[in-house]
Amino acid sequence: MATLRLRQPAVALPSDRSFWLQDTGAAPATEPLQGNERADVVIVGGGYTGLWTALRIRELAPETRVIVLEADLCGSGASGRNGGQVHSWFAEIDQISAVVGLEEARQLCADTVASIAELKALQRDGTIDMDLRLDGWLWTASSIAQEGAWEHAVAMSAAVGENRFRSLTAEEIERRTGSSASYAGVIETNAGTVHPAKLAIGLRNLALARGVIIHERSPVLDIEAGRTCKVRTAEGMVQAEKIVLAANAWLSALPELRRHLYVVASEVVATVAVPDLLDSIGWRDGASICDSQAQVLYYQRTIGGRVVFGRGSGNVAFGGNFGASFNRGPEHGRDNVRELHRVYPALRGVAVEYDWSGPIDCVPEHVPVFDHLRDHPNVFYGMGFNGTGIAQTPIAGRILASLVLERKDRWSASGLVGIERRMSLPPEPFRYLGARVVRSAVRRKNEAEIHNRKADRITNLLAGLKPGRRKK
What we know:
The structure is a single chain. 55% of the residues are buried. Helix 2 (48-60) runs parallel beside helix 7, helix 2 (48-60) packs across helix 11 and helix 3 crosses helix 4. This protein has helices spanning 19-24, 48-60, 93-100, 102-124, 151-159, 170-177, 196-209, 255-258, 275-280, 334-343, 393-404, 430-449, 457-463; strands at residues 3-5, 35-44, 66-69, 85-86, 137-141, 165-168, 184-188, 192-193, 213-215, 220-224, 229-233, 236-245, 262-271, 288-290, 297-301, 307-316, 352-362, 369-373, 376-383. The strands form 3 sheets. Strands 1, 2, 3, 9, 10, 11, 12, 18 and 19 form a 9-stranded mixed sheet that branches. It has an 8-stranded mixed sheet with strand order 6-7-5-14-15-16-13-17. By secondary structure, the chain is α+β, with helices and mostly antiparallel strands. Helix 2 links the parallel strand 2 (35-44) and strand 3 (66-69).
């Protein structure tokens, strides 16, 4: 029997955890796996993808015994440290249609609108208090080079009868955001922000209430694949007929998946609470805001009056291997703070209280992929969310649940299923060295363009090799 060995996570120190996790005092609520257990399905990973998959399986087949094994605490990965931005897939309809075709892309994008409605219902009925605020998502430009970055996606959405976006004037953007840095853009009105850790913890509690068994602090060491799989941790083992790998960037440990997956770091900072100051500059609601740089800025005002300000740093893990250094950058978000002060000069005297970073699972198409391992038809996975997952992972859960339960439906037949059609990445060390060169060029290009200068020809050429760039 083949043995699949998984990478062991470097658990973040309490002080290195995200503001979100520290704000909620997040801690494990379940016991580690000890001894031997049996299940119908074992899910490796207790983030959004794993928890939504567990919930969908129980919805479709309530008798199914589902065990979730989480290395740390549920939501301790990307699910608990992201920027908290909620928007539909219509912003990526061009990229999704390149993978699945225009009609399914339209339907998948509409599914994310339904996901947002599901989140709203979970909060409205008191099931999960996630601080959801549907005040809109602003997709903006703050330099000439960024202007019109949204036009292709907006036109494609309109062409399939979905007018999801409305143009904004410079005055509207400044009135909504309290900043004049961005002066053009569009808004998706049915979008906004959440508290990511509250959502993750709420999903954990909901899964437990619906009969899912969860073992936190139970990192999986290896999986002995076969007709009946054996999933081993340091202190226990679970036998199951079906396995779901929902471990985000940690899936890069498997060579079969690493051919299609690259791991980058994203950095986020959070200021001290300054609600009166934010009120005074006109930033009062819970909209999510992005610019259109290649290393995108994304930010929100929290309910408590903090500014959470993130940026895709582009730091790449060699061979998909990363450790504690990805939990918190040595520069403590210096680039983020610099950009924060550019966008909000009024915040130059405001202290940054939290900074954190972490790995993100990326695929070249910037569209997630689902499948089973080539030689193991009962070991399934989902990966490649590229940092966009709050409204998307509920769909991932539906796809994975249908695959696991062998249902013949639109989810199992989705064009997102099947890795053989996806792009493969170069082997190491060429992948890492190339990524470093491209990353450096992207940073130089961004630095020039944010000041309305043109980068040199070589820089533009190299930056253009960045995967997944959005058409204008």
